[in-house]
Amino acid sequence: MASTNPNDRLSALLTEEFIDQGERRWLYAMAAILGIMLAVIVITGMAQMLHPLSSVETIAPTTLHLQGEFVESNLGTAIEPDGSATVRFVAEQYMFVPQCVKVPVGTPIRFRLTSADVVHGFFVGETNTNAMVVPGFISDVRTQFARTGEYKMPCDEFCGYGHHAMAARVVVVPKEEFQNATPEERVSCGAQ
Ligand code: CUA
Predict the structure, then answer these.
(1) DSSP class per residue in 56-113
(2) Is residue 159 lining ligand 1, measured as CB closer than 6 Å?
């Protein structure tokens, strides 16, 4: 005669084999999910060149304007002896200094940024150029622009009340135009 106790019926249903099978299926499902997530990281990292910054450089955030590579006269675009360009920005609540830079097209460009106060975001619109700008550290990002044009450079890390208005511009110009520009013209691109 069949038992009328609900617990007995449950244990008859949940045999060891049944439980074992169920757990095994969940194990495979989790392994598959992990595998998919890992593949997404690897594929996007390789295809879109998304990767964390590899260098760790520190700098004193309170004396940026007094000494070192981020003094005002050193900001903006500079051409290195090998023909590449280095662009330096200071991020602070709530602006980038300078507000706009010109860079030559088709030239290896190294962006170097640091923050004078809180964490800001560095992002050049329509590109994969993106990094956090953390006070005390230098963000070093290398890129190259294939075509001329104007790119917006909004702060993409919430940094306070004025975050939404914090943005600079990167104007990519033909090489000759860049060479003929004065140092002032390289960090001022006209009205916004
Ligand atoms: Cu700076 Cu958001």
Answers:
(1) -EE--GGGTTTSSTTSGGG-EEEE-TTS-EEEEEEEETTEEESSEEEEETTS-EEEEE
(2) yes
Pocket lining: 155 vs ligand 1, CB cutoff 6 Å? yes
User: What is the number of the ligand 1 atom nearest to the C-alpha of 162?
Assistant: 2
What pTM, to 2 d.p., does this model score? 0.74
Tens digit of each residue's pLDDT (9 = 90 or more) over 104-162: 999 999 999 999 999 999 999 888 899 999 999 999 999 999 999 999 999 999 999 99
Residue type, 158: F
Residue nearest ligand 1's atom 1 by CA:
120
d(CA 83, CA 183): 16
Quote the tokens at residue 72.
């005002």
Is 158 a pocket residue for ligand 1 (Cβ < 6 Å)?
Answer: yes
